[in-house]
Amino acid sequence: MKRIVSLFLMLALILSLSAGVAEEKTVIHFWHCHSGAVAESHQFLVDKFNASQDKIEVVLEFQANNYYDLNSKVKTAMTTGTAPEVSLGESMTMANLANTGAIQPLESYIANDPEFNLEDYAAGVMTNTYVKGKLYGLPYQRSTAIMYTNKTLLQAAGLDPAGPKTFDELIEYCKALSKNDVIGWVQPVTTWTYEAIVNGYGGSMMDPSNTEITFNSEKAIKAMELYRQGISEGWANIKVGGTATADARLEFQNQRSGFIVESTGSLKMLMGYAEGMGFELGACMIPGENSAAGGCNLVMVNGLSEEKAQAAWTFMKFMNSYESALHTTRSTGYLPILRSVIAGPEMAELYAENDIYAVAAAQTEHIRSRPVHEGYNEVNTEMLNVLTELIMDTKIDAKEALDEFAEEANEILASY
Length: 416
Description:
The structure is a single chain. The chain is an alpha/beta fold and 416 residues long. The protein is 50% helix and 17% strand.
């Protein structure tokens, strides 16, 4: 009898251990750098993924306050074996992440996944996902710059609430708005929004081959000329310094300006401003030809085991599924990344409720890639100093200053 009981207990133990092995999940980590509605969107989707299956557990971790610090932390963590499996690659830092070996190309995963449809991605959101011809990121929370408007102020001034379509129209709108305590356009000096204006004029920061600086070309310099004209004629309030963005948003929030160029990812925040202050928020595309790419991609860190890599790929696909992409746009204002979502019934309802979503979706077809060069991050940092100086001292010859900095910038690029 004792032998039978012993055998029974041994069998029960073996079965319990086998069950434990079968239930063990592959754990991967997903690093981000967001707060507020964007962080909440990350968490919602991670929770939904974890609940949808029992093979993979994703741990969401806040690691930095901005993309640049996040990317630096990922590269440092790789040297200590503590890097995540999945992280975020900001559009302009993709080249650095790829060229330093921090992230891996994704073509092999796509080739072995017949269900994955790369053709469903909107053309605009695929900017800054490729480095040297290889795909290193899947679009995720992608954005572009659009011009937000205070429709209430525009209508009170007798202006078309749909907003201007050209830069000449923008100037006329701003002049008409600039009365009493209102200045037509408030804008913080950031390299990204400046780049959007450059693109609008048909210029660019670098040539298409990403080998030479072009921000000093005739078309590109028109962006600085626009800023300076607005300052001298009193219809633009261009903010500089460490609090420039916060200061400009405050002016727009308090209805002391009719226009501000911001990210589509700022939509929810600006909607809150409008609701709180009692005005109607609108938007129009950047006047001219193109806007600037922004936001982040999902990237897979290099050096993963086959098990971890496949788990990371499964998770990345889920984050780009129809339902997930729709949720990201609804909850944050980031661009709809899939053509099927853009044309879907849910977005049609959203367009009807708020035409700003339709403006953002339309802008996806007019986005220029940010410079794809490992050394451009350094150029970008110095560019902000040059732009700030040109705004603070309008006596400086803009063409000469940008020509001089272009030479320095090309030297910086050549050092990489």
